[in-house]
Amino acid sequence: MNTRKNAPLALVTGASRGIGKAIAEALAEAGYHLILTCSHTLPDLQEVAACLEEKYGITCTAMAADASEPAAIEKVFASLDHLDVLVNNAGISYIGLLTDMSVEEWQHVLNTNLSSCFYTSRLAVPLMLLKHSGRIINISSVWGNVGASMEVAYSASKGGVNSFTKALAKELAPSNIQVNAISCGVIDTAMNHCFSPEEMNALREEIPADRLGQPEEVAKLVLQLIQAPTYLTGQILTLDGGWQ
């Protein structure tokens, strides 16, 4: 893969739209060369990559890789010889009663949201150890902190992400690799388009900030975590407009 060894390189999963796309642009603007992945929207991701290259003069590689499949992640890392930043953003939701959920649906949510962090991190860490530095940032949810009715699998997966973050941070702190997570509230993305306008208005009224969060705000916090003192690690930072 054509990336200059001394140039900062970041990998963002689930980057074709929403939060992942906003994170990719923020990193590109900051001068990072990028590896971007998606599961099923490669043409959209390729368009994002081309735009970022033209706009910011960085290299940006778009790859189709289902984050829930370890073999797919191994292919992404196969040609990488260094990595500075890993952003685990890929995620899916399931809304419905637990008793209506199939075993396959449960496993798909857990594999995509939680196991994917393991699949990427276990390959990213050896590359970061080469420089004795690195940042791993996991995109989580407030439901990982408090749980949500009708979203048991999603809540469980994000709770797992939070614990994964804290544990891995302790493991990697002696190696100067920081691991943190952003616990997002209601962000204005396609994931929330399943709700009716009435439901979204009711939800908005619960948020003290009186609005939904924007993907660009998550991206800005990602950059701040990358630039934060190295003593900041193992933290779950909540970005929810004062909601939870």
UniProtKB/TrEMBL annotation:
GO biological process, alphabetically ordered: monocarboxylic acid metabolic process; steroid metabolic process
Keyword annotations from UniProtKB, A to Z: Lipid metabolism, Oxidoreductase, Steroid metabolism
GO function terms (MF aspect): oxidoreductase activity
Domain Ketoreductase: 8-190
Signal peptide residue numbers: none
Family per similarity comment: Belongs to the short-chain dehydrogenases/reductases (SDR) family.
NCBIfam families from the UniProt entry: EF_P_mod_YmfI (NF047420)
Annotated protein name in UniProt: SDR family oxidoreductase
Native species: Waltera acetigignens
